[in-house]
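Run: sequence + SN-glycerol-3-phosphate -> complex structure.
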Amino acid sequence: MKIFIDSADIDEIAKAYEWGIVDGVTTNPSLLKTAVDRRKAKGEKLDLEAYIVKLLETSKPNPVSLEVTKRTAREMIEQGRNLYKRFNSVANNVNIKIPVNPAVKSDEQCHFDGINAVKVLQSEGIPVNCTLVFTPEQALLAAKAGAAYISPFAGRIDDLIRSRANIKFSKSDYFPDGGMEHNGVFLNDNGIVSGIDLVSQCVEVLGYYGYSSQIIAASLRNPRQVREAALAGAHIATVPFGVIADMLKHEKTFEGMQKFTEDIVPEYEKLIG
Ligand code: G3P
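>> structure
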């Protein structure tokens, strides 16, 4: 499974690349805001265009998702073209993130605008990462429209399931991939029992029919979810920097290191420098 870093913070991205552990970058408007706010808080004057150029160079040759901000097909297509035209020449690694459905409520009349934008951009040779996917059927439509990547949001499904059941949780709390029973009810969102179940069902459905879209397990909040995304057969997991760091931690690793350090034979250390 490939690992992308879910961040727009160039320092985090550069570190992850230095360690040789990531294969791409995903950004979204919220991640870009976090990165920009961090820079501003340090008193830096930010040239956003130059910042994005540097981000793309840092990730070269691996892919970077840049998201549109508008909600009509026409505007998203225009923004996608603009982003691709302006930035893909930097390192030839831009893909455009398009929401699978840009409506903010059910009775809005723009449910197909995302899929429409995916279709048009991909037909112009612009790779698309179709985002905010919460059902396998959304993933299927995104795949049919030609999305290069499809991003089911695992953590947010877990949030939804727990919130509806009035369960208190914090964002990084583990939620069982096989789902859970609460007050005698087996929790689910229309048959999806967990975020990882969503990822798994997306992988399974697309796998049956040979679609070339790659599933990016997104909205991952803890290392165990990354493991489960790999076990579910996700092509890619996009992981925040903090969760990547947590993937290396285990109390027995710490304890083992403590003991090995105590046991060092001085002559051995002298030998190896
Ligand atoms: O990749 C999507 C991700 O950035 C959303 O994560 O934790 O805000 O649900 P989260």
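>> summary
Residues 6, 26, 28, 31, 153, 155-156, 218-219, 221, 238 surround SN-glycerol-3-phosphate (CB under 6 Å). The chain has a mean pLDDT of 97.
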